[in-house]
Structures are given as structure tokens and as C-alpha cells.
Amino acid sequence: MFARMRALAEVPSFRLDPLERRRRRMRLIATTMIRDEREHLPAMLRNVGAQVDGIVALDDGSTDGSGTILEASPHVLEVLRNPPDRAAYDEPAGHRRLVAAALAHGAEWILSIDADERLERDFRPRAERVIRRGRALGFSAYALRLRELWDAPDRYRADGIWGAKRVARLFRARADHRFDERPLHAAKAPLQGKVLGAFPPADLVVYHLRMIRPEDRIARRDRYLALDPQATWQPGIGYGYLADERGLVLRRVPPRRDYRD
């Protein structure tokens, strides 16, 4: 079944005809949870805002002015807030609030995105086609390709685990959303969107910018080691690989699948 879905999804967006573009009527709302993301946030809002019908954001206690940036953006429908002195990082609770807010704003589909991520150009028409064709198969959630940019904004890592990374971030909005309650690395899509134990893959690309610089890779590794020292929430993989360059293979971002701020 997934092989058939890949064939359906891998249709170049630049070949969509005018009729297919006029069919884009489903309401797609993006959700994002941020904390002190002033460096990445403005470009993310431009990139994502151009391809969705609005953004619902949760400012998780920022002190660097990120909340003001969110409030000033014409793409942001609502800003939820946690206080700077919040007791602890609680991603599942934040995601619940974001999904509820997106539903209140009339979302039919939801895209979960981080401040340090970007959507490929033509993400919207590609997603519309994937959703439309997947509807016939009963699909209601998708695992997207996650490309980790490395050393340069036009290079991504493709060896080993890096070339296979997917994130369940695009899903139908539903009041009966069954949430993944893991405190780290939880799927954003509802668990009932799985098919044969996994989320259907879609040929839709999200680029991750926070792995470009070596110092950011090290900081990310150290952060997760502190949050999950026994790798309880990422068994068999751990976090050392985040800064490990053995076997490094880099590929150029394809011109027709690049991202724009």
C-alpha cells in the first residue's frame, strides 16, 4: 500500500495544471511552538505563511522578543502563551493546545512546523495533491521527508539515518485526535492516522536549519543528552549521532525542491 502511495505522491508540482491549482480549497493551518527563536522566526513565518491559511503559535515563555514578532506577523491567527517561569517543558500539553486552537480557527488539515524549519517551494500544491489522492485510500496523516541542512544552506546530509528521516507532521484536523504522549520525539499526527503501524509516507520536504553549524549540532546533542540521558525516548539510536560526521555524505538541495524565505 505504501508503495502505491509513494507513486501517487511523487508527482512534480510544476506539472500541476490550472484546474488542479483551482481545486485548492481545504483550509490548512500551521501550528508552531517556540521559545526564544528570534534568529529563525521571521524567515519561518514568511516561508510557511505563504503556503498555509494561517498560523497558530504557542510562545513557550520567550524572553527575546519572539512573542512580539509573532503578534506582528500578518500570517499568525492567534498567539498562545506560557509564562517565562513555566515549571517545565511540556511538549505534549503544548501540542494539545495548538491543535485545539487550530480546530477553533476552522482547520481542515494541520501542519506542525518548528521555527528552524522551512517548507520546500510549492509545498502547498504538492500537499493538496497528496491529500486528494490519499483520500481514496483512507489516509488522514502523512510522514514528511526531513532534510537536515549541513555546513551550508544548500546542502543536506544523506547518509545512513539522515537520508531516511521522516516526521509525521501533516494530518487531518479532528476533534477525536489521539495524542502521542511521549515527552520527547512524539508524533504530531493523531495515532489513528497510522496504517499498518506506520504513518503513510509522502514526498513532501521539510528542511531543518539548526544542523548547519557545527556548534549548533553539538548544542542539540548536549540538550537531548541532558533531557534524556538514558535515551529512553529514542532507544537504539541515542543522541551521539547528532554531531558524528563518520560516513558523511552531503547532497545539494534540488533547484526545483528548494526552500525560500
What does this 3D model show about the protein?
The protein has helices spanning 2-9, 18-22, 41-49, 66-72, 91-104, 123-135, 214-227; strands spanning 28-34, 55-60, 76-82, 109-112, 117-119, 141-148, 155-157, 166-172, 201-208, 250-252. The protein is an alpha/beta fold. The strands form 2 sheets. An 8-stranded mixed sheet has the order 3-2-1-4-8-6-9-5, sandwiched between helices. The model is unreliable at 8-16 (pLDDT under 50).
Q: Topology of this structure?
A:
Blueprint: H1 2-9, H2 18-22, E1 28-34, H3 41-49, E2 55-60, H4 66-72, E3 76-82, H5 91-104, E4 109-112, E5 117-119, H6 123-135, E6 141-148, E7 155-157, E8 166-172, E9 201-208, H7 214-227, E10 250-252
Parallel strand pairs: 1-2, 1-4, 2-3, 6-9
Antiparallel strand pairs: 4-8, 5-9, 6-8, 7-10
Q: What sequence of helices (H) and strands (E) makes up the elements?
A: HHEHEHEHEEHEEEEHE
Query: Mean pLDDT, rounded to whole units?
Result: 92
Radius of gyration, CA atoms, in whole angstroms: 18 Å
Strand order of the largest sheet: 3-2-1-4-8-6-9-5
Q: What percent strand?
A: 15-25%
The stretches of 5 or more residues where confidence is low (pLDDT under 50) are 8-16
Quaternary state of the chains: single chain
CA distance, first residue to last residue: 35 Å
Main sheet overview: 8 strands, mixed
The assigned structural class equals alpha/beta
The helix count comes to: 7
- Choose one word for the global shape: globular
